[in-house]
Amino acid sequence: MNPVLVWLLFVIAFLYWKRKNIERHGIIFMLKNKGLATKLYNFSSRHLKRINPLFDLGVIVGFIGMFYAIKLLFEGAVDIFKGFLFGEATTAHVSVIIPGVAVPGSPLFLPLLEGIIAIAVLAIVHEFSHAIAASIQGMKPKAVALVLLAFIPAAGVELDEKKVSHLRPRARLRIFAAGSFANFLTAGTFMMLAVVLTLLFVTPTGIEVLRVENGTAADGILTNGTVITAINGVQAIDSKELVMSTTGFFNPVTTISFSRIASQLSPGDKVILETSEGEVEVTLGAFPDNPTRGRIGIITSPKIEFVDVGDWLPWLLGLIHWIIILNLGVGLINLLPAPLFDGGRMAQDLISVVFPKGAATATRALFAFALTLLVVNLLPTLIAIVTGLISAIVGMI
Do 14 and 88 fall within a single domain? Predict the structure, then answer.
């Protein structure tokens, strides 16, 4: 049976089972638990006060993340405008992703099961961190909630906003920054887990040629599927570099031996490649946009083998990959200084302290700028979705 259908049936059955206790707001369903909120408050306020300085670090990281998010969105907006002006293809820098659904225009496809688990981890870590931070500041959460956005699982924490507004700015910032900070810590924890699993169970065997570019040095010499084991006598990939590339935190181009060595070569250089089909010699060409850099002309990917394990490890590494990506991505976007984002509340508090007289005007201007960047970065996905819907409607007519 289709896994999407199985999950939808499960969600419908759950909603029917808990129908008397569920609050519905449009397509948002909430199952609140006040008892869990009380237990969380009692535990945190008694035993976790010693970690309060950690939330101060979270505030610092939060503001750094805010500036980094603005930088990324600004660069994305510039790329998209250039694409529109010069008629070049553009991809979304910020995208809508739905587990098990190929969203038009999105460069990512989030598998159903991995997506549900990754989003649940993301939401629980994020919201519980807000609740813990609030409890340590003496603010008891009103309720902890299981949330379903249509069929996507999430979590929520309900705080008394009037009491939050009466807290000192430093305490409020700790609460607002806690969610994204916890997401970053979660991503780092799973990165370390990926490193350990890769070192224990994954063996690199070389670099696989995914595609040979037409008219390049490799054209007619290498073929798709060829595995390169060494370049000029140096192993094409080692375990340490494989770990750094599979975590998604480092750039494979600068860590995989093959790519690192190839990037240091010049046009006209001759390289010896040891491959699964024998030893070959390639005389490098040049990159069109960088005539001083040697070009082989292949698109590659690390070739790996799993040692004495079943299918569970590749699946687990895939799940860890999505947990890392979603916690980093959502944690960063959540710091955007815009309405409804934690970053917006942080920015508003900071502006009110630094510029008390013009706080309202400065806040509105910052919010408008951030929202504009976000919308521009979503344009490729939004256009693709609208185009797809129009095509579907026309096809039906």
Answer: yes
Is there a domain that residue 310 lies in?
A: no
Is residue 209 in some structural domain? no
> Is the CB of residue 131 less than 8 Å from the CB of residue 141?
yes
Looking at residue 250, its pLDDT comes to 46
Task: Please tell me the pTM assigned to this model.
Answer: 0.78
Same domain, 292 and 328: no
For the stretch 12-23, pLDDT in tens is 888 888 778 788
Is the backbone of residue 132 left (phi > 0), alpha (psi -120 to 50) or beta?
Answer: alpha
pLDDT tens digits, residue range 327-364? 999 999 999 999 889 999 999 999 988 888 888 899 99
Q: How many domains does the chain have?
A: 2
Same-domain status, 292 and 326: no
Residue at 211: amino acid letter: R
**Coil/strand/helix, residue 108:** coil
DSSP labels, 119-170: HHHHHHHHHHHHHHHHHHTT---SEEEEEEETTEEEEEEE--HHHHHTS-HH
The pairing of strands 234-235 and 270-275 is unpaired
Q: Rounded to an integer, what distance in angstroms lies between the CA atom of residue 286 and that of residue 297?
A: 9
Task: Please check whether residue 340 lies inside any domain of the structure.
Answer: yes
